[in-house]
Write a structure and sequence with these properties.
Elements lengths: L1 H19 L15 H5 L6 H5 L7 H10 L3 H8 L2 H6 L3 H4 L2 H4 L10 E2 L2 E2 L2
Antiparallel strand pairs: 1-2
């Protein structure tokens, strides 16, 4: 009987998750079908550079930023995401990573909330 109750509860929680997450299926967000919080995980190699303005970004970090930089609104949403905020990064440092990676095609002057990309 106890196993049956656990199965029912698990099914109920999955159903609630599907119902509450249904509005995100249209892909109309800054990062398409993926949330900025999920996309933030792709920038994990940039963690040390995002915490320390003097740290050199790794080649993996620069490659990820270059790819994300093709969609500045997504990159901005990632930097302002709950995942980024809770990770302890400093947004001011994170915003300088494209410049520190010497990306020529970075979105210079792009407004990201109260910040501007250098």
């Amino acid at each position: 009987m106890e196993a049956q109750n656990k199965f029912f509860l698990m099914g109920f929680l999955v159903l609630i998750g599907l119902i509450t997450g249904f509005d995100g299926v249209n892909g109309a967000g800054e990062c398409g079908k993926s949330s900025p919080d999920n996309e933030a995980m792709k920038l994990l190699p940039c963690a040390s550079a995002a915490m320390d303005a003097k740290a050199s970004p790794s080649s993996q970090c620069c490659a990820a930023v270059k790819k994300m930089g093709q969609n500045p609104s997504c990159l901005c949403a990632i930097m302002l995401s709950d995942t980024a905020k809770s990770s302890g990064i400093k947004i001011e440092n994170a915003l300088t990573i494209p410049q520190r990676c010497n990306l020529n095609d970075r979105p210079v002057g792009y407004k990201c909330g109260p910040y501007t990309l250098p």
